[in-house]
Amino acid sequence: MTAGDVLTYSAPLIRWQGDRGTYHLIAIKGSAAEQIGMHERLHRLEYGARRGFGSVKVMARVGATGWKSSVFPQKRSSEWILLVSRKVIRDEDLEPGAPVTVELELL
Questions:
Q1: Which pLDDT tens digit goes with each residue over 2-27?
Q2: Which top-rank group of organisms is this from (predicted)?
Q3: Domains of the chain by range and CATH?
């Protein structure tokens, strides 16, 4: 995948309770995760450095709501994590456990 490519992925919205608060996220797995990983490797080869935590910048969209964010790799698996803000959850009427379709433009 090259910059500007868009991938669409559906997964349940996960509610995760951390030490510093409650977070909502989407875990990206399978071929979509592989595409993000390839994008990150190509970016690292082109620019000679990794971004913080190995993250990849994205423009995300759920329904009519779009936002600029990053996806983060998980150390012990091939998953990538996208955090979803309370504003997006409210604006798109999302519920934890319910399936969410997200479009990710890799930047």
A1: 567 899 999 999 999 989 999 999 99
A2: Bacteria
A3: 6-106 (2.40.30.100)
